[in-house]
Amino acid sequence: MAEMKRPYDFWKGMVFAQTFIFCCYMIFGFLIYSRQGQFTINPNYQGVSPYAWQTAVNAIALVTTLIAALLYGNIGIKVLYSNVFMELFGFPSLAQKSGKLLWIAVVPVYWGLAFVVAAAIPSISNLAGLIAAVCILQFSYTFPPVLMLFHCAQRDAIQEGVEGFDPSTGQTTRRDSGMSRWMRGLRKNTALNAFNFFFFLGSLATAVLGIYSAVIGLKNAYAETAVSGFSCTNPIGA
Questions:
Q1: In whole angstroms, what is the distance from residue 196 CA to residue 191 CA?
Q2: Secondary structure string (H, E, C) spanning 45-112
Q3: What are the phi and psi torsion angles at 56 (to 5°)?
Q4: CA-based max dimension of the chain
Q5: What is the pLDDT of residue 226?
Q6: Which of 27-31, 67-71, 172-176, 199-203 has the lowest average pLDDT?
Q7: What is the average per-residue pLDDT within 36-41?
């Protein structure tokens, strides 16, 4: 958003991108499950026949996964360095030479930890499920409604004319605080706030169930199969 000429247009691009991604996922899912049904494995292109097509898809997946990993890894390291190391531990800025040297040292440590996590869990399906339940679902469904709920409560609690922010002095004026202020804000848009609250509860319940399912699946993968961590045994279907 900070690099956009008109940052307010961000929501338009986000809506278009999410709609496009949603359609791609649905079409792909319908196609795969209509062809493979309950025999679908993860990654699903490992069930493609003939074998030449599977090999071609593997080559494409290798390139695209490497690109995605580098992009996400770069963002993850930047967030870790800027928000944790610099703010909490006083690390130097990346504009300084010492900061750049520390950045170089952080990169292999970050990827080493990522390798340890990936190699320690033998089941691809359950690993993906655990990551989705712990991380992806939270940022997609659990956090947004509760953050929206708090934002609306704070915004609607403002008393026009007597409260607000003065840009000339940088001061914020409030007449009250505490539970009474929160309740005043929550009562203004009851329907929207109720929707966000129950959406949050539903997402939280889904997250708990997803984490439980993934953990049980990982436990069974270790107990019922010969696949083990840090090995070259094929983990597909484990």
A1: 9
A2: HHHCCCHHHHHHHHHHHHHHHHHHHHHHHHHHHHHHHHHHHHHHHCCCCCCCHHHHHHHHHHHHHHHH
A3: -65, -45
A4: 72
A5: 67
A6: 172-176
A7: 82
Instruction: Count, in order, helices (H) and strands (E) of the chain.
Output: 9, 2
pLDDT at 145: 95
Closest CA to 118 of 42, 230, 218, 232: 230
The CA distance from 124 to 217, in Å, is 11
- Judged against a pLDDT cut of 80, whether residue 130 lies above it is answered with yes
DSSP run (H or E) holding 173: strand 171-173
Q: Please tell me the predicted confidence (pLDDT) of residue 238.
A: 44
pLDDT score at 237: 46
Alpha carbon of 107 to those of 101, 119, 151, 166: distances in Å? 10, 18, 36, 43
Q: What angle do CA 129, 23, 8 make, to 5 degrees?
A: 95
Q: Residue 141 contacts by C-beta under 8 Å, 6 or more apart in sequence?
A: 199, 203, 206, 207
